[in-house]
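Appendix B, example 12.
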Amino acid sequence: MIATYGLQTNMLIYLMTFYNMSAATATSILGLWAALSNGLAIVGAIVADSYCGRFRAVAFGSISTLIGMIVLWLTTMIPQLTSVSCSHFQHVCNGTTTIQLAVLFSSFGFMSIGAGFVRPCSIIFGADQLENKKNPDNQRRIASYFNWYYVSSGISTMLAVTVIIYIQDRYGWQVGFGIPIILMFLSVLMFQIGSPLYIKVKAKTTENLVIGLFQAAVAAFRKRNNTRLPLTDCDEYYRWPLVSEVLTPSMDFRWLNRACMIEDPERDLNLDGSASNPWNLSSLERVESLKALLRVLPMWSTGFMMSVDMGVFSFSILQTKTMDRHMFPHFEIPAASFTMFLLIALTIWIIFYDRILVPLLSKYTGQPRGLSPVTRMRIGLIVSCMSMALSAITERIRRQKAIEEGHKDDPNALVNMSAMWFVPQYALLGMAEAAHTVGQIEFFYSLLPKSMSSFASAMHAVGSAVSSLIGSIMVSSVDWLSSTGGKTSWLSSNINKGHLDYHFWMLTFLSLLNLLYFLVVCRFYETGNDEISRSPHVADEEECDYRLLPES
């Protein structure tokens, strides 16, 4: 994590400096990179669970990440792999060649593949080493492991955005990209040395949840015109395994019920009672799992805008780079390290909520976890709107001071303004991320059946991928639309000429619309005292845990 986050955080400056990319283009590319990395996490999880096992998945992902880092480091060592940097005062700059971009994007590709296999598998592989159901302290040991895993993740991210970024700014890109390679090499080496000691859980090649959900949808589609099968009150439902707690299908999404209805027992079933063709007949449990997934999709989509807001903070590096970043007279914070204030606020909020607010609120709300997941998501969305509005106000003040000081044509000139003015917006966004993300995943756990508990984390990964893609498209669109007619783009690399404040106001407006959309979505869920009603096939509250929370 130190290696990967240490490379990603400062990447905007690297692309603008050595590939002559505009701020908008570089941000779009980084958004697509993030989308690919998060999207491949689903592929990595499926491959690990159904084919190769978690050990091989983590080993392959670690090596792929190391290869990507080495290729990226070579771009700092071989001048022919980067374009000649140019000044902002030059009217014509040498563009990048196809080979240069191919090498750069191949490094991104290797690291995305690595992230796709390591992120969803490493935490569960660690838990496999401690899992012992015969041990009465098993749950406590596992819970302790996950707590320390996230503590180490937070520390790793903090070191990445402080120490690694400081080295890059102080000693250059060759050293700054070389140290993460050494760390990643040690990671791969230590993981492989421990191989004989690991407990390696075999992949379950006989069953795949994702394929099972597709089979249920296809079976329902194939039987859509079969009017002989009623949508309710069918005599024969297919259940596998034969002993099941689910007796009858739920009443919502009734058009899916035909997928588990037996038309001809001799044709549809094998001698052992299993389905002869799972693409024509799906189990009742699988149909209910598909329904549960459809139920959470509207609420899942309300989190896209939150991640888009997080992604736009790439531009904040350009802002803080032109401001006074001294925390002490002889110590200057690197521009890319201001992300640490987001992480600090996120950590403080989680600790404050868990240790102080929950005991107080549980006495008044009657809920052992204090505020309900829906309430926490609502708070997160509101605070994110406040963060975007504050970002717009702060940027307007910064830009006005830059123009008054005569720096309109010099984006690298230092503005007489402390970068500490940006700390509140980072802190607000950290609080918003902590409140919304944890609440959303707990909400998923409360609605999804136990067999789909891992989908809570998987859906967050897919949501991050979709959000990164949306953010990338949005940045490209705003850059193109605002620069039509020869005008200066809002997202110009010269932020003193551009209008980042307009872009932040647009995001504030979209965040407000998303908040209204969230309130509408909440009305479609059956709620009582802000608690989600559960049908028999839905996981009980005590089954909800935080094993697969994303590493914010």
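Strands lie at 323-324, 326-328, 331-332, 415-418, 527-528, 531-532. The chain has 17 helices and six strands.
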